Amino acid sequence: MAGEFELIARHFTRPSRRPWLGVGDDCALVTVDAGMQLAISSDMLVEGRHFLSTVEPERLGHKALAVNLSDLAACGAEPLACTLALALPRADDEFLAGFARGLYALAERAGIDLVGGDTTAGPLNICITVFGQVPPGQALLRSGARPGDELWVSGTLGDARLALEVFRGRVVLAGGDFETVRRAMELPQPRVALGLALRGVASSAIDLSDGLLGDLGHVLARSAVGARVDVDALPRSAVLAAQAPALQRECALAGGDDYELLFSAAPSRCDDVLAAARSAGVAVTRCGAFTTERGLRVVDAGGHELPLTWHGFDHFA
Amino acid sequence: MAGEFELIARHFTRPSRRPWLGVGDDCALVTVDAGMQLAISSDMLVEGRHFLSTVEPERLGHKALAVNLSDLAACGAEPLACTLALALPRADDEFLAGFARGLYALAERAGIDLVGGDTTAGPLNICITVFGQVPPGQALLRSGARPGDELWVSGTLGDARLALEVFRGRVVLAGGDFETVRRAMELPQPRVALGLALRGVASSAIDLSDGLLGDLGHVLARSAVGARVDVDALPRSAVLAAQAPALQRECALAGGDDYELLFSAAPSRCDDVLAAARSAGVAVTRCGAFTTERGLRVVDAGGHELPLTWHGFDHFA
Q1: Hey, is the C-beta of B143 within 8 angstroms of any chain A C-beta?
Q2: Which residue in B19, B27, B73, B249 has the most C-beta neighbors within 10 A?
Q3: What is the CATH code for A4-134?
Q4: Which of A55-64, A99-108, A149-158, B8-17 is least confident?
Q5: Which one of B29, B74, B84 has the shortest CB-CB distance to A37?
Q6: In Å, how far are A1, A107, B82, B168 from B179, measured between CA atoms?
Q7: How far apart are CA B240 and CA A41, in angstroms?
Q8: How does pLDDT run across A64-107, given as a tens digit for each residue?
């Protein structure tokens, strides 16, 4: 791409907050604190699949980093740094300015540096890799859920999916309601503080990116347990709660793009979970339990089992 | 993508060589040796720009990792691990099998694990991030060249560019010669062992990805020095050396895709450079010097300066 180096210099060179070498050499050099393990996650975002062409560049910059920070949150890792690889159809100064603004604003709040990366000409593609640190043995894993543990989720579920249904023309919302759910889709808030506060409290965790049923399925497979989901207890925004019951359940169970944490904790740790949530400033809701019996059951407030499995929702993912 | 998780499991789950958590959780957990700095590099490969659609998937898997390992080599870092993010137009089992074979074969030789990543539907795009470690203060940087240092390169230059010119129809080569230069383009060998051996010997290093003149320009800018390149001393393969002189120079000076190391060392370290090259099993060639006078001069064997600057070659990059 003509002007590649100038564009990088203009938009992606900022002073670093830690004494390490940032953008501009063959590698970035990052110092991990003594005795800490490095936690790494990488997510690739493609237009039309992870974001719509209508999204503002600033929100896209936010979201591209947010979905990666959400993976660190799910491990209880402290964010350190990230790299950005970007393929762009053309050297678009205005796009890059907005994208960088959104990305750096979130990086600033998360206390991390952008330490390197790559830009190239090509169909729009954003690949961010994040680095965090965690004391050995303290990372929250998908494999730690035990029968009897309670199932928790942070925030509210399903708003991003509801926004998508508006874009698809299946649902109509008033302007203010649409803006609310659109923000949920375009400006997810990674639960980094909650993940840190849950170390030593939660027995397992995963971030909700593909929808609750699918992501919970990964935890069940890794932990070799089953689960019961109390569908009517799933936390929903006022906007989603005003929709038809079937749509509410579809969005909350299989919506995707929530970037909330789903985690397990022993019943005896309930107070510790609530204290962790308070310290992180995030609401958490108990909405099920893990079972010895394998499989995933979805049960309503009347105790009736819904005739669905997470496989039944796979085509929504 | 339908079957995403199955495809990942089939092609990208292998036992890890170090006691860390690999593919399958929200993050990979990697242990950096006590007291070592982490070196990170990320490269994104796009069809038509970084590789041709005709490339065998196995060679593409090799090259995608090789160009990243080359960045670690240029820093003198010991490779530890990598992540892979992959956008594919469709879930292509045969492509993934070949790609994984090429990637893992090189990963095996480099002694690293694939510890995580992402796959998605989208225009073909490969983003690999590599992690290495280096003792603090010992990384080879672009900023260390000093006036009086000699300029060295590893291997031979220009074959990948010559292969590209064959694909473009500008050059015709006999079958065996074409296969030789095509291998240079599609199967570059990252100079990891040389980079490690040059720690404490070379004063600066960079890997040659965009062509010697452009990459040397980065070293000059970072080191605040100038350089003289002895164009007729640049190492060329027998195939390239049989081409017209102007084409030889164009390929060697501005070819791109060489993935050799360009480095500087004080004249007093010449024997150490040669010993490092011997220990790494890689040829190195002295082909210029760094100067107090800024700018980049290209001089032939008769001492005549060629009327070109690296800016003059920018359109080839």
Answers
A1: yes
A2: B73
A3: 3.30.1330.10
A4: B8-17
A5: B29
A6: 29, 47, 29, 15
A7: 42
A8: 999 999 999 999 999 999 999 999 988 888 999 999 999 999 99
Best residue in A68, A83, A127, A204 for a mutation probing chain B (most B CBs within 10 Å)? A127
CB interface of B with A, residues 38-67, below 8 Å: 38-44, 46-50
Return the amino acid letter for A295.
G
- Cα–Cα dist B227/B293, whole Å: 8
Ordered by start, the domain boundaries in chain A are 4-134, 142-316
Q: Provide the β-strand partners of residue A152.
A: A263, A286
What ipTM score was computed for the predicted complex, to two decimals?
A: 0.87
Q: Are A205 and B129 within 8 A, CB to CB?
A: no
Nearest to residue B123, comparing CAs of B84, B86, B87?
A: B87
**Both tokens assigned to A138:** 């303290």
A142-316 CATH pick, 3.30.420.40, 3.90.650.10, 3.10.20.30, 3.40.50.1980: 3.90.650.10
CB count, 10 Å around CB of A13?
Answer: 13
Summarised one tens digit per residue, pLDDT across range A33-51 is 888 999 999 999 998 888 8
Max Cα distance, chain B (Å): 63
Interface check A13 vs B, CB under 8 A = no
List of chain A residues whose C-beta atoms are within 8 Å of the C-beta of residue B121: 46, 49
DSSP string, chain B: -TTHHHHHHHHH----SSSSB-TTSSSEEEPPPTTPEEEEEEEEEEBTTTB-TTS-HHHHHHHHHHHHHHHHHHHTPEEEEEEEEEEESS--HHHHHHHHHHHHHHHHHHT-EEEEEEEEESS-EEEEEEEEEE-TT----TT---TTPEEEEES--SHHHHHHHHHTTS----HHHHHHHHHHHHS----HHHHHHTTTT-SEEEE-SS-HHHHHHHHHHHHT-EEEEEGGGS---HHHHTS-HHHHHHHHHH------EEEEE-GGGHHHHHHHHHHHT--EEEEEEEESS-SEEEE-TTSPBPS--TGGGGGG-
Contact: B41, A86; criterion CB under 8 Å:
no
Residues of A in contact with B262 (CB under 8 A): none
Measured CA angle at A215 (ends A210, A220), to 5 deg: 165
Is the minimum CB–CB distance between A196 and chain B shorter than 8 Å?
no
Scanning the structure block, which residue is given the tokens 């383009």? B185
pTM of the shown model: 0.90
CB A213 within 8 A of CB A310: yes
Tokens of B309: 């600057």
**B191 close to A (CB below 8 A):** no
Domain B150-316 of CATH type 3.90.650.10:
yes
Asked if the Cβ–Cβ distance from B28 to A46 is below 8 Å, we say no
What are the start-end ranges of the E strands in A97-235?
113-121, 125-134, 150-154, 204-207, 226-230
